[in-house]
Known about the structure:
By secondary structure, the protein is mainly alpha-helical.
Amino acid sequence: EATAAAALVQATGRVLLLERAAGGQLATRTDQLTEDNHHAQTDRDRFMADVRSGAIRLSIPVAGYRPGTGADPADSAAAGVDRQQARAELDGAAAAALDAIAGDGDAATRQLNACIDAYNLVRDTYHVQTE
């Protein structure tokens, strides 16, 4: 019984050490995610400030429009005319909406990557078989 009890104490000690180490690594990963999110938000805020001030202009290609000709783009393409691509500048509200969508997607990607990292950390720490 004494040998079994000693083995149990030793195994419990190893598990506690693993838990502390994993907990510390998970806390570090959480801190990194928070920092990454903060940097991304700062970059987005700077970008949108530049858009609002006019330092950055956003535009999209406009299909089917050839300035000053009134020509149908299908006719131009069929005739082999090399035309310049017309563009439409986005207003501030549209730019902000697109930036918000992209920012939400980026944040979700960062969060999912952090979840994957945490999962892999726990799996590797405890040598869990996933098959």
